[in-house]
Amino acid sequence: MRAVLQRVSKASVSVAPDYFSQIGNGLLILLGVEDADTEEDVDWLIRKITNMRIFSDDKGKMNLSLLDKNYEALVVSQFTLHASTKKGNRPSFIKAAKPDYAEKMYNMFIEKLSKSVSTEVKSGIFGGDMKVELINDGPVTIIIDSKNKE
Fold first, then answer.
1. Which residues pair with 20 in a beta bridge?
2. CATH class of 2-145
3. Annotated catalytic, 141?
4. Which of 71, 89, 125, 130 is deepest in the core (most CB within 10 A)?
5. Is 79 among the residues known to form the active site?
6. Any catalytic annotation for residue 119?
């Protein structure tokens, strides 16, 4: 499971014609699921994300977590995080999970993240043609992979 975390001062996702979700200060989480992902990957990733100290303290040092700040989270599914660009110029998405499994894991991630934070977790629509807007604060962008725990 891969996630791109973007520290934002605001972010939104819309899906035509009438779905819209937005957050203020917090994290935009782009989430990619692969076939090998399990509930253990979900749990590890949530612990890592919620406790990662990427928000500034009163001295301007990145020393506080999403939990410390009680900030919001917006989760957007993004199978393209598992793109392989090893051969040729067209990315291969063979490692990305099939839609049924990916949606199950995406929903599990949102449900478990919701239980881990004190604010409402917002989301996009799985498989939707989403338009994402954000103001990246910092900018701070972190990539996490549950299969490559660096």
1. 14
2. alpha beta
3. no
4. 71
5. yes
6. no
